[in-house]
Design a protein that fits this description.
By secondary structure, this protein is of the alpha+beta class. It folds into three domains: 3-204, no CATH class; 219-315, Aminopeptidase, CATH 3.40.630; 319-503 and 522-540, Aminopeptidase (3-Layer(aba) Sandwich), CATH 3.40.630.30. The protein has 18 helices and eleven strands.
Length: 568
């Protein structure tokens, strides 16, 4: 039985429970019921039936997919609905429908799996909207039923005023409905609170912790050298999950946000194997109950995803400098003047492998990083194009560009990640607050020239998220939001100084209905949820900063961290 048909059948039982709370009790059943239970007890049972019916609607789809925890909760709802239907009006028919659902779920209980349910804020928004719609429709239906019964009562009194028994029955039904909707008006807050509470209980333990496979090893060395992609080295992050295809044909790195498995790294492996690796990755995600998605796919990767049935749209642009045609003399006059000025004043740069960054030099660079973070609220954000950390000695293929002042002390640095033979990607860029103007431009010019001298072919500068999003996807609004998080407009202005070519990057989704969840996952990973905190911290820092006072120039430190890598 297909998932859609299973979902519809559970929906049907839930709707039966909800509709039964709107229908009046048969007069003879009402007499018998009120002889056994107080009216207030019957109303409580009626609302329990309503709660169980709405909860069935929310659990229908995960139960149809085979989630064990949701199925057990649904069986509990069905059992509760059996007794509640009997207590609210001796509704044997509705009780039998719930009993049939309970028996069916019990028979197939061995087929359910323990794959966790994963939810996000987007799902909470959907739940809130569904609750508002259910409450509005239920209240509207209740008012319509009350109006209909009042009309029937008036007409019956006009047609045959001597039929007291029928008049008494309709009067009792009308009074019952008044009590029912009085109770519902008091429970308008209790129903959504109850459902949200159940939702949180289900999903509390379902959010999987994002961890890296400790057995994965150096995935770039294993698979990434055959790539030509600025995201190839992202597989060596410490907080991503990695899927390794059978027979070691390739690998894909991704992060989990709710039930979205968002690919953030390149499709690692030979080009001839990528179709098979991606198909196997999608099959594994389907078995785990996860939704595949990808951000920042290169054009050649977009073809692989589209062939697998994914919907792809342009979501951003990547600035790539072709070193074969790069020359400082071709840059703007302002940049060339800044280079000559800083060189005459004694500033100089060096490009070192990560293995040559000594402890003393690493400590000096850490101080630069600390100052940079403090100026931004103590946090940084962004993930899709960064390693997320400073390269360590094990990152032998990474490079570090350094800039020092006349005294030899570092004032700025940048890191480069390998993306295949002769291909590098700009990662971290840090500078001291009191560094001279055009510091990063000077450092990047010298770094690009050094890479060209080493025989490198291309360097990816930055990825501008949402800058290429189409208008129907609210591309301009998303670009502004992304600009708040990672200053995309500033990055584009900086990149254009080096005359790059702009290469499109693509977003891939399984279905357009997954777009809200995927966009939320991107914003979470890029750090948009922390923008407000950082902006507030910067504002408070400026408000508390005292006015600068004159002070003597500091003396040179006794042990300067030289760019040559010498030191303890």
């Amino acid at each position: 039985m297909r998932t859609a048909l299973k979902t519809l059948l559970i929906y049907l039982v839930g709707l039966i429970n909800i509709a039964s709370t709107l229908l009046p009790i048969w007069p003879r059943r009402y007499r018998l019921l009120t002889a056994l239970l107080p009216v207030q007890g019957a109303l409580v049972a009626q609302h329990l039936t309503l709660f169980a019916g709405v909860l069935m609607l929310l659990l229908a789809y995960p139960v149809a997919q085979g989630h064990r925890r949701a199925a057990w909760l649904l069986m509990g709802c069905a059992l509760l609905a059996v007794f509640a239907n009997l207590a609210k009006g001796l509704d044997v028919e509705e009780a039998l429908a719930n009993l049939a659902l309970l028996a069916t779920l019990w028979r197939v209980r061995a087929r359910f799996h323990d794959i966790p349910l994963r939810y996000t804020v987007v799902d909470l928004a959907r739940l809130g909207g569904a609750l508002l719609v259910i409450q509005a429709l239920y209240a509207l239906s209740g008012r319509a039923v009350l109006a209909l019964l009042h009309t029937l009562e008036d007409r019956l009194a006009t047609w045959n005023p001597t039929v007291g028994d029928h008049r008494w029955a309709l009067h009792a039904l009308t009074a019952h409905l008044r009590l029912e909707h009085l109770f519902l008006s008091e429970a308008n807050l209790a129903l959504p609170a109850f459902l949200v509470g159940v939702f949180l209980v289900i999903s509390w333990t379902a959010l999987a912790q994002i961890e890296r496979d400790p057995q994965a090893g150096d995935l770039y060395r294993r698979f990434g050298r055959s790539s030509h992609n600025s995201l190839a080295y992202i597989a060596n992050r410490g907080d991503t999950r990695t899927f390794i295809a059978s027979q070691g044909r390739g690998a894909i790195s991704y992060k989990l946000v709710g039930r979205i498995a968002l690919q953030i790294g390149a499709m690692l492996g030979p080009a001839s194997e990528r179709h098979a690796v991606y198909a196997e990755f999608r099959s594994w995600l389907r078995a785990e109950g996860l939704i595949p998605a990808a951000v920042a796919l290169a054009p050649e990767e977009r073809a692989v995803a589209a062939a697998a049935g994914m919907r792809c749209i342009a979501i951003g642009r990547e600035a790539v400098v072709d070193l074969a045609s790069f020359s400082v003399e071709r840059l703007s006059k302002k940049l060339r003047w800044a280079q000559r000025s800083l060189t005459r004043r004694g500033y100089h740069c060096a490009l070192l492998p990560a293995t040559q960054i000594t402890g003393t030099l690493r400590a000096a660079l850490a101080r630069i990083d600390d100052e940079w973070r403090a100026a931004r609220g103590g946090r940084d954000y962004g993930c899709c194009m960064t390693l997320g950390r400073f390269p360590n000695p094990q990152d032998a293929a990474c490079l570090v560009g350094l800039m020092a002042g006349p005294d030899g002390e570092p004032i700025a640095y940048l890191t480069l990640l390998p993306g295949g033979e002769g291909y590098y990607s700009l990662d971290l860029t840090r500078r001291l607050r009191d560094a001279p103007n055009a510091t990063m431009e000077y450092l990047l010019m010298e770094t690009l020239a050094a890479l060209r001298a080493r025989g490198a072919s291309e360097v990816s500068l930055n990825f501008s998220t949402f800058s290429g999003a189409p208008a129907w996807l609210a591309g301009s609004a998303l670009a502004r939001l992304g600009g708040l998080a990672i200053q995309t407009s500033t990055l584009e202005t900086f990149n254009n100084k080096f005359q790059p070519r702009w290469s499109p990057r693509y977003l891939a989704v399984r279905h357009w209905l997954d777009l809200p969840d995927v966009l939320y996952a991107i914003l979470v990973i890029e750090g948009a949820d922390r923008v407000l905190y950082s902006a507030l911290a910067r504002w408070l820092g400026r408000a508390r900063r005292p006015l600068p006072a004159a002070s003597p120039a500091p003396s040179a430190p006794p042990h300067a961290a030289s760019l040559s890598g010498e030191g303890a």
